[in-house]
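Priority: medium. Attachment 1 of 2:
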């Protein structure tokens, strides 16, 4: 796709890849489409200023950059190695940890937005659910083997730490992937709350992470007291988790 704007405020969009769905299949349309949208003048509107046109040009350049990087097949892909900067060896870790070979992408923030209702609806009553958080420098997540409770009308429900773990798959220190289990299996882990409670928190794993609808995440400051590494309980893993920041993408995966 190529997007241009001329000095008269006329936007030209040239699309080389047009997709349509037919009987659950996605095909590429070989026809090249050119769409011209004219900004119609009105007596009540001021003329388009040159700095406004430049601002739109900057925005359209961002669209062009995105179009060059993201192929339509990527947007519709459910393959983690296509969607994330991971290798076959990383995927093998996830398969071993989940004890399953196959997976289904239930939710993607770039495709589905980021809302508490959307997140909780996508995983309710699902088992073997994994959350993957991608940031600029790392990929980490958590796993729940037991079925995820439905969202209550008031208050909250939760899963305890039985059959639950958190993990670090990729980090800026080039540390090998590792996973952590809770020191207390009866502790609360995943919190599912009513829509009108903590409305900005879209995903909360107590003792591990809180993700807000602004894409901001906060790692619990007491994570080292809550979790320990499977094979080495004295492993100091704290530095491998960014303490807070903004995610690029949230994936919710069902393994089977």
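Attachment 2 of 2:
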């Amino acid at each position: 796709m190529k997007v241009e704007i001329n000095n008269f405020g006329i936007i030209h969009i040239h699309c080389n890849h047009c997709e349509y769905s037919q009987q659950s299949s996605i095909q590429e349309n070989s026809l090249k489409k050119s769409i011209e949208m004219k900004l119609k003048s009105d007596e009540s509107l001021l003329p388009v200023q040159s700095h406004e046109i430049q601002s739109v040009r900057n925005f359209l350049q961002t669209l062009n950059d995105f179009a060059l990087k993201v192929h339509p097949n990527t947007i519709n892909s459910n393959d983690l190695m296509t969607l994330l900067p991971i290798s076959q060896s990383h995927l093998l870790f996830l398969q071993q940890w989940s004890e399953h070979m196959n997976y289904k992408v239930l939710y993607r923030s770039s495709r589905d937005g980021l809302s508490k209702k959307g997140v909780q609806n996508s995983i309710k009553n699902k088992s073997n659910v994994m959350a993957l958080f991608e940031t600029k420098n790392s990929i980490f997540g958590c796993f729940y083997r037991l079925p995820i409770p439905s969202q209550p009308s008031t208050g909250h429900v939760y899963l305890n730490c039985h059959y639950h773990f958190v993990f670090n798959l990729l980090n800026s220190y080039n540390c090998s992937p590792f996973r952590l289990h809770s020191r207390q299996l009866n502790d609360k882990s995943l919190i599912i709350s009513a829509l009108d409670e903590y409305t900005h928190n879209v995903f909360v794993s107590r003792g591990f992470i809180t993700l807000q609808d602004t894409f901001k995440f906060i790692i619990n400051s007491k994570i080292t007291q809550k979790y320990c590494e499977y094979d080495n309980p004295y492993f100091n893993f704290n530095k491998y988790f960014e303490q807070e920041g903004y995610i690029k993408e949230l994936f919710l995966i069902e393994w089977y």
